[in-house]
Please model this.
Amino acid sequence: MPDASNDKLQTCISFIVQQLQLRDLHSNSKGSSPFFLGINGVQGIGKTSLVSAIADLLEEAPYNLHTVVLSIDDFYLAHQDQLNLATTQRNNPLMQHRGQPSTHDLDLAASVLSSLQARSDVQIPIYDKSAFNGQGDRVPKEKWVKISGGQDRSIDLVILEGWCLGFRALDDANLAACWKQAVETREYNQEYRGRLGYNRLEDLRFVNEALREYDVITNQLDALIHLDAEDPQYVYEWRLEQEASLRRSKGSGMTDQEVVNFVNGYYPSYELFSDRLRTGALKEREGNQLRLVIGKERDVKAVLQRLLVDKKSFGLEADAEFEMCRSL
Model:
């Protein structure tokens, strides 16, 4: 049983209950399909443990919500397909391992999400990150998780977590401007800590174009929780901790240097797409995105929720969007 006194957990539970109530309030077909919640956060920030705690709590009284949990990691390409992609994109260092947009099987993801939406029986794939010395591979289909759509109990809530969930592609001009600024910063500032400035623009364009296809996932979300690292550099220490735990439990995994190289391959996307995510990935309904600013010890530093206000109510010339902040 999760610790219900945990402030991070309780903040998320309150947000989810609020969003479910708003959905039912504005819907003519209450509960006609599951509610889809996305959770975004950098590697090692604690997405998986938080999602597990949320699901466990919501399954119990007084909520009694039949909850299905899955990760965008479940849809990584099979090992051989990833190798084929790396060969095809041999000059693009961002494609040499799993992680970036284009390294997921989006057809499989769309099929699974569609089945969950329809409350049909479905199998959710499992990805073994320890396989091939940490390169990873999808497990055989007979070992996938079988989900009953609703014969015994209808699915109420689907929670999908992922490091790039909610990211939206940039237009080419903004992409080029971000890259140029990063390159100039790297050249003139010896303390430059990013990775964007070390990559070629054409390689970043490949990732950005692939990301457009991920809208099929983001657009299915009813609400989003963004676990936003106070300093994105925390991801290196967090991911090292995560891999050490994986090696202890599985007996294999990446070395520390391999982990650093691995995170380097993700980091340009954090630099490119996080700002837009903070402004709101979902625009359909008021206040449907929650941002928790997370400190180095994975504690919550601030809670922010974007709220839309009607221009007439506040004497504004146009509808506006504000961010409600509660520091902890």
User: Anything to note?
Assistant: The radius of gyration is 20 Å. Residues 309-322 have pLDDT under 50 and may be disordered. The longest strand covers residues 300-309. The first helix runs from residue 7 to 26.
